[in-house]
Write a structure and sequence with these properties.
The chain is mainly alpha-helical. The chain has two domains: 22-84, Winged helix-like DNA-binding domain superfamily/Winged helix DNA-binding domain (Arc Repressor Mutant, subunit A, Orthogonal Bundle), CATH 1.10.10.10; 89-229, GntR ligand-binding domain-like (Four Helix Bundle (Hemerythrin (Met), subunit A), Up-down Bundle). 68% of the residues lie in helices and 4% in strands. It has a three-stranded antiparallel β-sheet with strand order 1-3-2. Strand 2 (74-77) and strand 3 form a beta hairpin. The two termini are 33 Å apart.
């Protein structure tokens, strides 16, 4: 995590890149930095330094920060500057509820129609997950995790369901990487294997149960983490009170 006042040398100059407009590229660069916790929750963002390191003018940086505020990743306060948002657990819980409802039902339906090619892709992904988990590469494992769920949702063939699930997932990326560890990654592989086992048996109930358990585990571990690191969150005590 980055300390206040540290240089932004980890950001790459995006001047001259042709993919998308400058604002879109700044959004991508800053979102990745926030999701990967190069900028920690609560950290102040210096627009001048961002412009310098990214090689752009103030306008695309200001526009990008406005978009990131709409995504709940930054807070812009007039006369006080911009900071990375603290994590709101109530938002996490709502997005996880959406993911569980959509993805558990997705694999329940998919179990009755899944083909050999899709199963082969899932097994290949699991093999890569095991290797990367052993190597301890957090970012690569996250990419494989995303690809695993994308394979399932793509195979379902319902684009609006996939879009809704991905929207909820997008809001959870920062949390998933916050919890990433060799132990959690190893457990994630086992949870994914149970989902695939249900699909191979064409057992929709088993696949849906495995998916629900997999996503529930994220919230369980997040609440435990929030008790240890309350300064990164806005409302963990409120959620604890709700459970009493």
């Amino acid at each position: 995590m980055i300390a206040k006042g540290k240089s932004y040398d980890f950001l790459e100059n995006i001047r001259g890149e042709k993919r998308g407009g400058a604002t879109a590229r700044v959004v991508e660069a800053l979102r990745n930095a926030i999701v990967m916790h190069a900028f920690e929750p609560g950290a102040a963002l210096d627009k001048a330094k961002l412009c310098e390191k990214l090689g752009v003018s103030r306008f695309p940086v200001s526009e990008a920060l406005a978009r990131l505020q709409a995504q709940g990743l930054v807070e812009i306060q007039p006369q006080r500057g911009t900071t990375v948002s603290l994590i709101r657990l109530s938002d996490v819980r709502e997005n996880m509820f959406l993911r569980k409802a959509l993805e558990a039902e997705a694999v329940r339906h998919l179990a009755g129609m899944i083909d050999g090619d899709t199963l082969d892709r899932l097994h290949a992904n699991l093999a890569d997950q095991k290797q990367v988990a052993a190597e301890g590469d957090k970012q690569d494992f996250h990419a494989l995790d995303l690809a695993f769920h994308d394979t399932l949702l793509s195979a379902l063939g319902f684009p609006r369901v996939k879009a809704a699930a991905e929207s909820a997932r997008l809001a959870l990326d920062r949390v998933r990487l916050l919890l990433a560890s060799p132990r959690r990654n190893t457990e994630t592989v086992k949870e994914h294997e149970r989902i695939v086992a249900g699909l191979e048996r064409h057992d929709g109930a088993l696949a849906a149960l495995a998916m629900g358990d997999h996503l529930d585990q994220v919230m369980t571990e997040l609440m435990s983490f929030a008790r240890r690191e309350p300064g990164l969150f806005t409302d963990w005590q409120d959620l604890e009170t709700d459970r009493m």
